[in-house]
Amino acid sequence: MKQQIYPCLWFNQQAKEAAEFYCVVFGAEITDENHFVSTFEAAGQKFMCLNGGPEFTPNPSISFYVTCESETEVENAWAKLSDGGKALMPLDKYPWSPKYGWIQDKYGVSWQLAFGKMEDVGQKFSPTLMFTGEKAGKAKEAIGYYTSIFKNSSVTGIMKYGAGEGDIEGHVKHAQFSIDGYVMMTMDSSQPHGFGFNEGISLVVECETQEEIDYYWKKMSAVPEAEQCGWLKDKYGISWQIVPAMLQKLINDPEKGQAVVQAFMQMKKFEIDKLLAAAEGN
C-alpha cells in the first residue's frame, strides 16, 4: 500500500547530506533526489529532506519515536546520532522501555529511540507531536480533530497525567493514534521549552485528485498567510503540505520540470490542471 502521509524535514541546503546521514544511522536508502529535495526510505517508510533555506529549523515539538527491536539497535543508533547532537533524555531504563533515550541530532531533528515490540506500534518511525506553551493541553482535542478528517483513522490509547505526576492533571502524558493508517503519537507539556510547532518539520499528504486536495485544504488551512506552494498551517500551528501524488514525477522531468516549478511557485493551493498545462507548455 502506498504511503500517503510522510514527514518533510527542513534544512539549510543540507538535504542530501542529512539524507545520507540518516541512511547510515537507520540502514535506509535514498530513493529520489533533485535540487529541492532528497527522499529516503527506512523500514519501508518515506522521509523527505527539503533544501528550504535558513528561515526555519526543526525542533523537538515534533520528534520521531523509533521502535527498535533490540537494545543493541538502540545503542548503535544513539551513538551515531550523538555525533554533533545532544541528549534531551539520557539513554537509560524507563517505565515504558528497558532501553530508551531522546536525542536531538546535529541538524536539529529529534529522535526517541526505544527498545520495544513492533507489533505494539505498527511501524518503526512515528511522528510525535508535543503541545507546548499556549498549545499545552490541546493534545486530546487534536487527536479528535485529525481522526475526524482522515479516513481509516483510529485511536489506540490515551494516557493522562494524574495528580503529582509532573504535569497538569488531565493533560496527555502519551497517546497513540493513526490517520489513514499512519501511526502518530502525541503528548502535552506545560513546562517552559522555548519552542513550538513550525515549518522545520511538516507532514506531506499526497493526493490523487483535485477533489482530495480541495477537501484537506478546506478542512485544515487555518492561517491564510501561511498558504504557499501547497503548504498550510492548521489551527494548532502544525504545517502540512497538500500535494498531488504526481508532483515529484513532473518536477523530475528534465524537459517539463522547470515550467512546472515556475507554475506552482505562483500557487497557494495546488491546482492539478494548471500544473499539467504548464508541463505541456500551455
UniProtKB/TrEMBL annotation:
The keyword Iron-sulfur does not apply. GO terms for biological process: methylation. It comes from the Bacteria. Keywords: Methyltransferase, Transferase, Ubiquinone. GO terms for molecular function: methyltransferase activity. Residues 3-113, 123-243 form the PhnB-like domain. Gene3D superfamilies: 2,3-Dihydroxybiphenyl 1,2-Dioxygenase, domain 1, 3.30.720.100, 3.30.720.110. Pfam families: 3-dmu-9_3-mt. InterPro entries: Glyas_Bleomycin-R_OHBP_Dase (IPR029068), PhnB-like (IPR028973). The keyword NAD does not apply. PANTHER family: PROTEIN YJDN-RELATED (PTHR33990). This is Glyoxalase superfamily enzyme, possibly 3-demethylubiquinone-9 3-methyltransferase.
